[in-house]
Amino acid sequence: LAKRARPGAGGMIPDETHFLNALMESVETKKTPADELMDHYNGAWAGDLNRIFAEFSY
Questions:
Q1: Element (H or E) spanning 21, and its range?
Q2: Of 10 and 25, which is predicted with more confidence?
Q3: Per-domain residue ranges for the chain?
Q4: What is the pLDDT of residue 16?
Q5: SS3 for 36?
Q6: I need a surface site. Which of 10, 37, 44, 45 has the fewest CB within 10 A?
Q7: 18-35, pLDDT tens digit by residue?
Q8: Residue 8: phi, psi to the nearest 5?
Q9: Which residues contact 39 (CB under 8 A, 6 or more apart)?
Q10: In this structure, what DSSP letter does residue 3 have?
């Protein structure tokens, strides 16, 4: 695998560690990204799905 490895995003991302960091955060907080979205939806967004575009677009 190491021989096949290629830097991601034109060399800006050296490896897949950022994916593992996101996974570790989910394990530590016991919340998936979907859980976080539901918290927003049921909380501050008060059921307004249009807020997802303003807050999570990139």
A1: helix 17-29
A2: 25
A3: 32-58
A4: 75
A5: helix
A6: 10
A7: 788 889 999 999 999 999
A8: -85, 160
A9: 31
A10: T
